[in-house]
Design a protein that fits this description.
The structure is a single chain. The chain is mainly alpha-helical. The chain contains four helices and three strands. A three-stranded antiparallel sheet has the order 1-2-3, with no helix packed on it. The longest helix is centred in the last third of the chain and has 11 residues. The relative contact order is 0.13.
Length: 98
């Protein structure tokens, strides 16, 4: 759609960031939200880093001591246009909620 990838290391290297475009945000992420929520989201949108760097991945590794110590819940969203319900349930099964 209208999302943009960033290439901080050059176009010949893998993408390093992603910014969801306004059409994608409106149709996939905020399709059930009031217009003012979409407007706020678009105003606050920032690129998201895409990590392919092994050193960075080690520094942000998910461990039982870190991630496993945080209580978590998951709300299944059956009208989610990005993560389908069967995949949401798979995440719940694999990542266990408490």
């Amino acid at each position: 759609m209208d999302s943009q990838f960033g290439y901080i290391n050059g176009m010949d290297q893998p993408a390093t960031s992603l910014l969801f475009g306004p059409n994608f945000t409106a149709s996939k992420l905020y399709q059930l939200s009031p217009p003012e929520d979409l407007t706020l989201a678009l105003t606050l949108a920032r690129p998201v880093g895409l990590y392919k760097d092994d050193e960075l991945n080690r520094d942000t590794a998910v461990t039982k001591e870190k991630y496993g110590s945080v209580p978590r819940v998951y709300i299944v969203c059956n009208k989610d246009n990005v993560i389908k319900e069967d995949f949401q349930r798979w995440i719940i099964e694999k990542k266990s909620t408490r």
